[in-house]
Amino acid sequence: MGELDNTVAVITGAARGQGRSHAVALAKQGADIIAVDICADIETIPYPLATKSDLDETVQLVQDAGRKAVPVIADVRDLDGLEAGVQTGIDAVGDVDIVIANAGVVAIGDPQTRSEPLFTTIVDTNLKGVWHTLLATVPSIIRKGKGGSVVLVSSSQGLIGRGGDGSTAMFAYAASKHGVVGLMRSAANAYAQNKIRVNSVHPSGVATPMILNDFVINGMLANPNPAVSQMLLPDVPLVEPQDVTEAVLWLVSPRARYVTGITIPVDAGHVVM
After folding, report:
1. Fold exhibited by the domain 7-265
2. What angle do CA 34, 23, 84 make, to 5 degrees?
3. Domain residues of the chain, as ranges?
4. Strand ranges (DSSP E) for the chain?
5. pTM here?
6. Which residues are catalytic?
7. Is residue 70 scored above 70 in pLDDT?
């Protein structure tokens, strides 16, 4: 018996990294997973994004945990495509109980200061994509009528502005992740009457391909910005996906049944420095 037996979770950005970690952990607690990912690169994002093979691996890991998994290839920036993909998942495994809006992009180390295409890509993915995820999933939770839990994955940069360097990438990332907090608080109020809890988690840098890629690493080495990565706790250069997953698991579980509208940093003290 798991805490999430007979529930259905939609997870965006599920093909690798934090999304995969969340999907497998929820499956081990009894949830079926609708796993959404773009599975393609984006021209303005300077590092490789997840592939269909990555998504297939997540699906296999969920199935190995004894639960159903429905892969959905969709771009969170495209509301029509996202809604159609989520509906495919609902048709396969039933209405939704849990949503983890995890999909996001960053371009740490990109020195451009006036790139509107880059700014638009980051904000459209990290902020508008979260709004689209709410639109594509919450009606299903309401229709099911049992309440639910929504977790929006923001960032420590959604709580502070430390590390701003004037680049398009950092402006867009901090702005989009702050915007996620506004969405969370508004949604917590809007959906409370339907017994839907909405919260956000705020990791610092996480050891995933979004950070551990040649472009970001080389950019940080060339232009060190200690304010981006410095933690209060010693010897923690990056947190691990599982650290974020533990916070997510608590928020979606019955143990947090009266918790809504809060921000939870998972950051080794980044936001208090």
Report:
1. Rossmann fold (3.40.50)
2. 20
3. 7-265
4. 7-12, 31-37, 69-73, 98-101, 148-153, 196-203, 263-266
5. 0.96
6. 173
7. yes
